[in-house]
Fold this sequence. Notes:
Helix content is about 35%, strand content about 15%. It has helices spanning about 25-35, 35-50, 75-85, 125-140, 155-160, 170-175, 215-220, 225-245, 270-280, 300, 315-325, 360-375, and strands spanning about 60-65, 90-95, 105, 145-150, 195-200, 205-210, 250-255, 285-290, 305-310, 330-335, 340. It has an 11-stranded mixed beta sheet, with helices on both faces. It has 12 helices and 11 strands.
Amino acid sequence: MGRGSLRPTVAAGRGDWKSLGKPLSPHLATLDATLSPAGERVKQELPLAYARYNSPMPLPKLLITLGDVAGIGPEVVAKAWPVLLEHCQPMVVGHPAFLPLDIPCVNPSHADLSNVRPGVVSAEAGRAAYDWLCYAIDECLAGRADGIVTCPLHKEGLHAAGVPFPGHTEILAERCGANFQPAPSRGEGENPRPHAMLLYDDALPLAVAHVTLHRSLRTVFDHITTETVLDKIRLLHGILPKLTGRPARIGVAALNPHGSDGGLFGDEEERILKPAIAAAVAEGIHAVGPIPSDAIFLPKYRSQLDGIVAMYHDQGHIAMKLLGGRRAVNITAGLPIVRTSVAHGTAYDIVGQGIADESSLIAAVKVAARLVCQTSVGYHHFNHTGEPGA
């Protein structure tokens, strides 16, 4: 899979899907009717939003990737759009035929989506989602956009399309030149930039970084080292002040039950985690642990922490989704660009019913806008035509 730059094959700007003769997916008619009140608000607010683009301090330009169009991505974008305009200059990277509102959209993919059905895994939808993400990444790396907010894609769809990555985080890492491997095992010439997927809840506030992510549990132990844990502590130490406005306080979750109870249930806490925490403290980082994972998310510990390092996907995800629910935001830390995402999936089971919740997308856009303003001296904007501007 090459890294050649994708360029739009459909002109930027919203097309009317009714003018195509029929929508690409039958749920669009239902969705359009459901969202018509919001559509009226968008029509009123769009001119005001575009008028801001030439202001001395424009809102940050964020690219919203539509994700897997067989899922709820188009619905949550449409529902959230009026609120998004208050926080950024949004542009959708996707197919305008899947957007029931007059929303600015650019489509850089050649994928044929005419046979995509709601709630059904599709190789073409997976290919389009991949193309859209790659385009958005390239636009940010080229300095033509300030950040990316992603709607959910479907991992089976990616696989069916022959994409050799399990999800957003891995695609972002590869295209941005980041690396999952700890420093000692990196080969000569490899980019040493570590990265991590964070789940963040602005209301708590609390962020969780994962040492391992999309891999089977039986392989997790092979990828937890002192260096990988230390990498994640450092990433939290760097990004948390931008989110919370104060120095980071970081806790490290134990890997084994009860933190291994003095070695009764494993030695990883003593052999791997404690040296990582000690190294972080020696660097001036406020880090504590390891703390048993069934305790670290309780108020006693959580109230004293801004970030937690979890050892594997479900150790962090289950707790954060129970605590934050729809408030949770996915952040990829350690990249040269800003990227946030909704913290939910494609929700194939409710596509077309008009009941998808847009809260996580709104939260993701707010966090992305904040990160852009915290990390950028200046940022970019669209001109009044919807084309990327200087």
